[in-house]
Amino acid sequence: MSNTAFKVLFFAAALVSVAAVVSCNRSKKSAEPAAEEEEVIVSDVKYNSETGSLEWPGGSYRLITVEPGTFTMGPNAKQEADARDWEKPAHQVTLTKSYMIGETEVTQELWVAVMGENPSMTEGENLPVECVSWNLSHEFIARLNKITGLAFSLPSEAQWEFAAMGGNLSQGCMYPGSDNLDEVAWYQDNSGNTVHPVAQKKPNELGIYDMAGNVWEWCEDYYRGAYPSAELQTDPLETAKSDNIIRRGGCWGGFAYFCRHSFRAGLGPSLGGNNCGLRIVLN
């Protein structure tokens, strides 16, 4: 594909994303609730340290442990031919501490158990929550932390990519858990143009589901284009503010190359269409 053709195609994809954002905001006016002073939070959600799960009556949300390690962040050998400039340069990253990451994207059932309402356009308890901006993700996490007394967060971009590629168990696949995208992801070619319940596809090497496709997942980092250097980085987190935030993983309506675990995209922190969700970590 020529550079000009790619730019036209990428711009068209951006327009689709904007349309989804407009649709969400029109139909779900409560998607960005105003903060309440001295809010009293009532919730049955609790963290079970024995199972590594958030639990509430009739439901649970499991987290998977990712051990520390050093990995190549950016395109691997199988991804290099399709890699965009903003995925480069590939560089070594060391994560010095273990962390726990959601086995699935945050479900609507968990979101409602914490927030008491559902911003999603397509509703279903076992569907990933969507129509979620980065700002609203932080409201959810702040509320969850107040309920549990713990320190959940969005993953850093490095934490997300290391978990997606299978951590220390990585087999060097093209996509999270497989070289065959249909095995692990709901995306443009197989989704039927809609979001799907979590954990219906094959998990990756760590037992984590849907890190490719279904809904885009917010990271904590600000997006600043290509990586700054090819030098080794330790526990990186981009905190210098910019207009966009990193999101990862592709979505049900996205192209196959969005689903590579090295692919990066940015979006404004107040935006979030019916293809935007999240996954949480516990450090």
Core attributes:
283 residues; alpha+beta; paralog of FGE (formylglycine-generating enzyme); 6-stranded antiparallel sheet; 4-stranded mixed sheet; 5 helices; 18% strand; globular; disordered N terminus
Question: What's the arrangement of secondary structure elements?
Answer:
Layout: H1 3-27, E1 46-48, E2 53-56, E3 59-66, E4 69-73, E5 91-95, E6 99-102, H2 108-115, H3 134-148, E7 152-153, H4 157-164, H5 181-184, E8 216-222, E9 233-234, E10 245-248, E11 265-267, E12 276-277, E13 281-282
Parallel strand pairs: 5-9, 8-12
Antiparallel strand pairs: 1-2, 2-3, 3-6, 4-5, 6-13, 7-13, 8-10, 10-11
Description:
21% of the residues lie in helices and 18% in strands. The termini are far apart. It has one domain (3-32, 69-282): Alpha-Beta Complex (paralog of FGE (formylglycine-generating enzyme)). The chain has a six-stranded antiparallel β-sheet with strand order 1-2-3-6-13-7. A four-stranded mixed β-sheet has the order 11-10-8-12. The protein is of the alpha+beta class and 283 residues long.
Predict the CATH topology: paralog of FGE (formylglycine-generating enzyme)
Number of spatially distinct domains = 1
Content of β-strand:
15-25%
Q: How far is the N terminus from the C terminus?
A: 42 Å
Along the chain, the helix and strand elements come as HEEEEEEHHEHHEEEEEE
User: What's the Cα radius of gyration?
Assistant: 18 Å
Number of helices: 5
* CATH superfamily grouping: paralog of FGE (formylglycine-generating enzyme)
CATH architecture assignment: Alpha-Beta Complex
Give the strand order of the largest sheet, numbering strands 1, 2, ... along the chain: 1-2-3-6-13-7
Mean of pLDDT:
89
Residue share in helix: 10-25%
Beta strand count: 13
CATH class: Alpha Beta
**SSE-based structural type:** alpha+beta
Largest sheet at a glance? 6 strands, antiparallel
Q: How would the global form be characterised? A: globular
Low-confidence parts: 1-22, 26-32
